[in-house]
Structure formats: structure tokens, C-alpha cells
Amino acid sequence: MNFRSCKSCAHFFNKIKCLTRSKTVKHKYTTFCFSSAVATKLSCDGRRKIQEPDASKLTREYLIHSSSISTAENAVTLLTQTALALQHADSEYKEALLALVFLLELKLTILGNSQEEARLWDLVLEGRSLVASSKKKRDDLEMLFSRCQALVNNAAEISYMTGADIIGNSVGDRLNKLEMVITEERLKSEQAEKRLQETEIKSINAEGKYAEEHADELEIERQKVVQILTASNSEEELKGQETEGRESREPDITDILDNASDNLTDNAAEEI
To answer: Which of 38, 89, 96, 236 is geometrically suited to a Cys-Cys bond with 138, CB 3.0 to 4.6 A?
Structure first.
């Protein structure tokens, strides 16, 4: 039954309202309201009382179980991020290999054109440098990934030992999937390496064959290059000799001042 719906209670509250309008009982009503507020606050504080922790969650077994789960989750996160970085590095390495293959194949089409060969050779050197740096980055991440694999395996074993079988199974599944992805990407880069080796062998054979067939032309080109280099060296030597001659012919300002000082001293001595 609703407390305020009772007629007697309604009559009681009406009396209280009338009492509050009287000046004589104003102080008493204020005291009554204050007491009611204090009682209400105390009842609310009682409801907000801090609950005591569950004793079952403070045992050594529970803490070890929770720690093993957290460790497995963190190990999987580290493994996942390392695998993504390794996949990206392997992809960059593969692209650098294929770019170098393209340059070597293009070089075979311009044999005999010394200017184009020189310009393309600079790109080939840059491509080889990029391949070396990409391979080093990939190898470093592969080493890190192997350490992460060992860490995840240990975390999964600890999870099984502490009774966290579900997290142990999920960790094992995640590890297997990431290993499959890395293996597929590694196979692609190995195919690119094999293609680069075949292209380099093909390039060496083609250049050797071209050198045999055009030995006279290459010798003429070589002599022209030697003459150009010799002429440039001779010009530099002549410029150097002319510079030295001008320096030797030009009087030194220090010597001029010394000679002038000596002449003034001799003239002063003769006058005396």
C-alpha cells in the first residue's frame, strides 16, 4: 500500500504543512528537516559501504592464473606486430629485387650505347644498395620473430600449466596462422632472389658475347676514352703550370716592403 495514499498519513502531512507556515514553529521545523537530512545521508552512506573483496580472488592460484593469461595476451600482441613488420619488410625486399631484375634486363637492350649504359649503371648501383639495406632489415626482423615464437610457445605452455587451456589453444592457433603468412611471403622473396640470379647470369653471358662480337668497336671506344682522359689531364697540368708561373712572376708584397725599408735605411745613413 502506498504510504502517502493513506488518508491518515495525508492528513498528517497536511498538518505538517500548516505547522511550517506558523512562525512560532519555524525553528522546530528547521531542526526537524536537518535531522531528517542527516538520517537520510546516513542511510545512503550505509548503502554505499565498500564491499569486502572476494577471498577466492586473492589466492596464489588465482593470481598466477590471471598473470599467465595476461602474459600470453601480451606475447601474442608482440608476435603479431613483429609478424606484420616482417611481412612488410619482406614485401619491400621482394620489390627491390624485382626492380633490380628489370634494370638488368633493360641494360641488355642498350648494349653498345655507352651513354645510356652509364646512366643506367648508376640506377643499377642504387638498386643493389636498396636490395642490401632491405635484406638487412628483413633479416633483423626475422631474428626478432624467431625470439617472439619462442616467447609465445613458453607463454602457451605456462597457460596450460596454470589451467588456462582456452587462452593456450588460442595462442597456438594464432602462432600457426602467423607462421603460415610469413612462410608464404618468404617463398615469394626467394623466388625473386632466384630470378635475380638467373638475370645476372644471363646479363654476364650476353655482355661477354657482345664483347667478343664487337671487340674492335669496343677497343676504338676505349682508345677514345683514354684520349679524352689524357687530354683533360694535360689541360689540368697546363693550368697548374700557368698558375705556378704567375705566382712565381708576381712579386711578393712582403719582399717589396722589405726592399723599400732597406733603401730608406741606406739613404738615411748616407745623409748622416
So the answer is: 89
